[in-house]
Amino acid sequence: MATAIDAAHVTYEAPDLEVMEKFLTAFGMVKAEGSDDRTLYMRGTGTQHHIHVTRKAGKQRFIGASIEVATYDDLVELAAKPGSSPVRESTEPGGGHEVSMTMPDGIGIRAIWGREKAEPIPDRDPFVMNNVRDRNRVNAAVRQPVAPCTIARLGHFVLHVKNHDESMAWLNERFNFLPSDYFVPPGEEGPVVGTFVRLDLGEQLVDHHFMLVLQSDWVGVHHSAFEVTDMDAVMSSHDYLIQQGYTLDVGVGRHLLGSQIFDYWKDPFGFRIEHYTDGDIVDGNHRPTKFNGTASDTTQWGNRPPLEFFQ
After folding, report:
1. pLDDT tens digit string along 234-270?
2. pLDDT of residue 166
3. Neighbours of 296 (CB within 10 A)
4. Which of 126, 185, 253, 269 shows a CA-CA span of 20 to 30 A to 232?
5. Has this prediction a pTM greater than 0.90?
6. What are 202-217's pLDDT values in tens digits?
7. Cα–Cα distance measured from residue 230 to residue 237, given in angstroms and rounded to the nearest whole number
8. pLDDT of the residue at 310
9. Who contacts 134 (Cβ-Cβ below 8 Å, separation ≥6)?
10. How far from 183 is each of 112, 186, 293, CA to CA, in Å?
11. Residues 111, 98 contacting (CB under 8 angstroms)
12. Confidence of residue 86 (pLDDT cuts 50, 70, 90)
């Protein structure tokens, strides 16, 4: 199976690219080279050429996600799977090669390799935190204005599918994902209706989750999540987006599964998008657990989502 090494970007369609660019800029992204009047490419401070793509279309729609793989041979292997495209040169800015695939419910997944790396954008260092035991910040103050934060990278995305087991089998046949935690119906021990998956990169530390696949009555994206510098970045951006009149969804709070400090917003076309920081980092010793609570129970503290949040 192919070795996935990073979440490259998510792709949407929307009727107004100027409106989307204004929001994503306020959210903390930067317009990337190659954007035109048909396609908007937005990047973060990291080395991915772009992390968010919006194509102009008459109606808003989630297209799918692109996953960076380790080698060209990974693309060759994926191209041999049923329903895959041949390996071909990418037509997106940054170049490289790709293989296009479609999950059982029609969600597009692209594997990419060889895309040109972007020059990182300088960002402030994370603020060092003092606590009752460790005095880490000495003769230095925290000064964070209310302003757009800086997005570092696409951290994960959550997909709603009609058949969880079928979708997980499709993914596991193609990529080296490992389970991190499972969702089961509230108050029950099974069946598994959602799986958090992480990358398997050997001894390298990875995020608790790269993707969540969740069984639902509808198909599409629940949200895309973008990592920011620290909690002050989350909070100051929260205030800024409120000042700009954008729509808060759920936040700020701390998740139970993955532990991230989260802040969910709705973009101008109704798609949910998340700022997060301070997520769990795991290695090969991590073993999945089962979660059988409600959506509200997924929050340890802070703004709790409504019961229908994951439906």
Report:
1. 999 999 999 999 999 999 999 999 999 999 999 999 9
2. 98
3. 11
4. 269
5. yes
6. 999 999 999 999 999 9
7. 11
8. 82
9. none
10. 29, 9, 8
11. yes
12. very high
Of 59-63, 155-159, 236-240, 283-287, the poorest mean pLDDT is in 283-287
- Contacts of residue 22, defined as CB under 8 A and 6 or more positions apart, other chains included, come to none
- In this structure, are residues 67 and 4 in contact, taking their beta carbons and an 8 Å threshold? yes
Query: What pLDDT score does 223 carry?
Result: 98
Task: At 42, list the tokens.
Answer: 């937005």
3-class secondary structure for the chain? Answer: CECEEEEEEEEEEECCHHHHHHHHHHHCCEECCCCCCCEEEEECCCCCCCCEEEEECCCCEEEEEEEEECCHHHHHHHHCCCCCCCCEECCCCCCCEEEEEECCCCCEEEEEECCCCCCCCCCCCCCCCCCCCCCCCCCCCCCCCCCCCCEEEEEEEEEEECCHHHHHHHHHHHECEEEEEEECCCCCCCCCCEEEEEECCCCCCEECCCEEEEECCCCEEEEEEEEECCHHHHHHHHHHHHHCCCEEEEEEEEECCCCCEEEEEECCCCCEEEEEECCCEECCCCCCEEECCCCHHHEEEECCCCCCCCC
Residue 179 to residues 199, 212, 304, Cα–Cα distance (Å): 9, 10, 25
